[in-house]
């Protein structure tokens, strides 16, 4: 067995990572969490309370009487009678109360005297129907069940805030959920913000790396893109002979016992290396990309690897052993849960199958199919994944959901925007594209160094929400 240094591309910031590269729907809001630590929020804020709601295990089987407890956070000190209620929908990670202290939802609550809630998604954080995440126990994990959980919570909230308008907010996967709440439960929702929401389930998400490539070509200094292409071409050549593999293992500090001739181990290597660029493209800005290429490129590249030490303690070498990686994933509940959702509902598998990117063709979709079957059993094969993608798009409408009073917001640097709604569905379901913005940046409060386009976008979003809930005059844009 290889001694493990966990793979950056699969683990770092993974709570909001889509697909199986967890640089990319790791925690979208990690920057916000760094600014406002969750423990300090709870200790310094007596107005914030953690609460629990009993939920059915299966909302769609009246013969199943099993229940579990869902966690949510609430804050009422800003609220005035008959004023709005704002609910942030949890996604693929633990819910955090930080959004009750900062961010666009908090700003809206301050400006409209609203109450604030954050709901945790089933199977994540402390909202666990089961401790043991077997495939049989995971069958109750789905967006449809989660939406029903949120609907039940909203029904409870509305019993106490009977005359209040309801606004739901989400980013990334939870941005999908915000839009889909209005679609499935329009009687409970008056308006929604769907930020960076990849509402289209897609099997081979090759456009992700295409966008990463475009960002580095557009915002990197002269020669940056060529340097990336050369680096990955050299990596590919290193796998052509046993001698060059030995040299590569020494150069990259790969464990001696790891067999890099195995296709899946090689594929994990390329995914990990690509994720340094994926991460900066998804969460960064033009300056970050320029600095990454402008300074010591090789040193910057290595830093992403070193950061993964945080996930597995101090280690003497790196391992890309696929089977070892599967065993480690099984020990991380939220990671297992999200992979299950990609295997059964959305796919979002980020591959390098396109010719329009410099990362070679060594991240194939077969890597993800194998991960699904290794984690959950032989039934979770390509056919099962395809069926889940098809059913999700039928249920929710893909890029044409029948919704009103929902604003879809994307940043043009965000690779996930390729699966989002980029043009108005109607004047009551507008789309907003923000220039030079990355994933979910609109959900933050204004910062001094934010570009003017981002600040203006937040003003526009707040204007729409206020007008839809009767807190401001609405004029057709």
From TrEMBL:
According to the record, the segments passing through the membrane are: none
A GO BP annotation = proteolysis
Query: Per its UniProt record, what InterPro entries does this chain match?
Result: AB_hydrolase_fold, Peptidase_S28, Ser_carbopepase_S28_SKS
- Which Gene3D superfamilies has this protein been placed in? alpha/beta hydrolase, Serine carboxypeptidase S28, SKS domain
- Keywords in alphabetical order: Glycoprotein, Hydrolase, Protease, Signal
Q: Which GO terms describe its molecular function?
A: dipeptidyl-peptidase activity; serine-type exopeptidase activity
The entry sums up its family as follows: Belongs to the peptidase S28 family.
For this entry, the protein name equals: Serine protease K12H4.7
């Amino acid at each position: 067995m290889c001694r493990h240094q966990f793979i950056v591309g699969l683990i770092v910031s993974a709570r909001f990572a889509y697909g199986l590269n967890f640089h990319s729907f790791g925690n979208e809001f990690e920057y916000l969490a760094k600014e406002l630590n969750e423990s300090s929020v709870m200790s310094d804020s007596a107005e914030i309370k953690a609460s629990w709601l009993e939920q059915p295990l299966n909302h769609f089987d009246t013969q199943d009487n099993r229940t579990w407890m869902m966690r949510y956070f609430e804050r009422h000190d800003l609220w005035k009678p008959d004023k709005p209620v704002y609910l942030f929908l949890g996604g693929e990670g633990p819910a955090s109360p930080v959004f009750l202290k900062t961010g666009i939802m908090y700003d809206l609550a301050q400006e409209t005297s609203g109450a604030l809630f954050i709901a945790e998604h089933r199977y994540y954080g402390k909202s666990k129907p089961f401790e043991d995440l077997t495939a049989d126990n995971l069958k109750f994990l789905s967006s449809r069940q989660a939406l029903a959980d949120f609907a039940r919570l909203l029904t409870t909230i509305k019993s106490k805030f009977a005359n209040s308008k309801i606004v739901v907010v989400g980013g990334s996967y939870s941005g999908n959920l915000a839009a889909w709440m209005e679609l499935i439960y329009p009687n409970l929702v008056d308006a929604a913000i769907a930020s960076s929401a990849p509402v289209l389930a897609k099997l081979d998400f090759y456009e992700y790396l295409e966008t990463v490539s475009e960002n580095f070509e557009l915002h990197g200094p002269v020669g940056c893109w060529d340097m990336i292409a050369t680096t990955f071409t050299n990596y590919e050549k290193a796998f052509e002979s046993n001698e060059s593999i030995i040299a590569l293992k020494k150069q990259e500090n790969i464990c001696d016992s790891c067999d890099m001739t195995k296709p899946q181990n090689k594929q994990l290597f390329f995914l990990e290396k690509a994720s340094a660029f994926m991460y900066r493209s998804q969460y960064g800005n033009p300056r970050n990309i320029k600095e990454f290429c402008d300074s010591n490129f090789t040193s910057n590249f290595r830093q992403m690897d070193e950061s993964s030490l945080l996930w597995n303690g101090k280690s003497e070498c790196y391992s890309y052993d696929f089977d070892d990686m599967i065993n480690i994933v099984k020990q991380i509940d939220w990671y297992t849960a999200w992979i299950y959702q990609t295997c059964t509902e959305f796919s979002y598998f980020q591959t390098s199958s396109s010719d329009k990117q410099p990362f070679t063709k060594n991240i194939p979709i077969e890597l993800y199919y194998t991960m699904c079957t290794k984690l959950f059993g032989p039934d979770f094969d390509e056919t099962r994944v395809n069926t889940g993608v098809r059913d999700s798009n039928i249920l929710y409408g893909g890029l044409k959901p029948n919704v009103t009073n929902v604003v879809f917001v994307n940043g043009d640097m965000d690779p996930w925007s390729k699966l989002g709604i980029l043009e108005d569905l109607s004047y009551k379901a507008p789309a907003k594209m923000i220039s030079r913005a990355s994933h979910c940046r609109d959900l933050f409060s204004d910062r001094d160094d934010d570009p003017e386009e981002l600040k203006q976008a937040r003003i526009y979003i707040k204007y729409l929400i206020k007008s839809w809930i009767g807190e401001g005059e609405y004029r057709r844009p």
